[in-house]
Write the structure tokens for this entry.
Amino acid sequence: MVQLLNEGFRVSIIDNLDNSVTEAVDGGDLRNKDLEKLFSQTQFDALIHFAGLKVVGESVVNPRRYFDNNLIGTINLYEVMAKYDCKKMVFSSSATVYGQPEKMPCVEDFELKAMNPYGRTKLFLEEIARDIQKAEPDWKII
Ligand SMILES: NC(=O)c1ccc[n+]([C@@H]2O[C@H](COP(=O)([O-])OP(=O)(O)OC[C@H]3O[C@@H](n4cnc5c(N)ncnc54)[C@H](O)[C@@H]3O)[C@@H](O)[C@H]2O)c1
């Protein structure tokens, strides 16, 4: 964010404070009305999506929490972005989508085989991004 501000961009942050503090960010959750309120007030050019739960062990113990937060949150985000015509996203996926690669370093054409619920949320979200972009080519998702 500091880098973007230094480059002259105007930036908003939405974060539900699950793993952050109010000194650093504004509140707001991807899964509720906070998101719609923010988008209705500002026309965004693009979005950098880092919001997610990321602890592999916790995701094994409580997969529903990860599916709800990471999958539902991101699907909701796509809906609101589409509604307000913001179709550029940088999405933070994870190397866990490759499972245990046979060699290192891991590169992007390795086989996708997530081995835990956290990794699967990221893999599903990559597939969702591919499907959205295929159906609506004006989306740009990295
Ligand atoms: N840290 C790593 O090594 C690493 C590696 C690969 C991918 N990632 C991914 O990058 C992203 C950011 O990772 P990080 O290490 O900065 O994690 P982080 O926990 O510091 O940042 C994620 C932020 O998202 C917020 N958040 C979570 N769910 C939310 C929701 N539903 N609505 C709004 N805000 C929500 C949390 O409060 C937190 O501030 C994550 O999606 C993670 O899966 C991280």
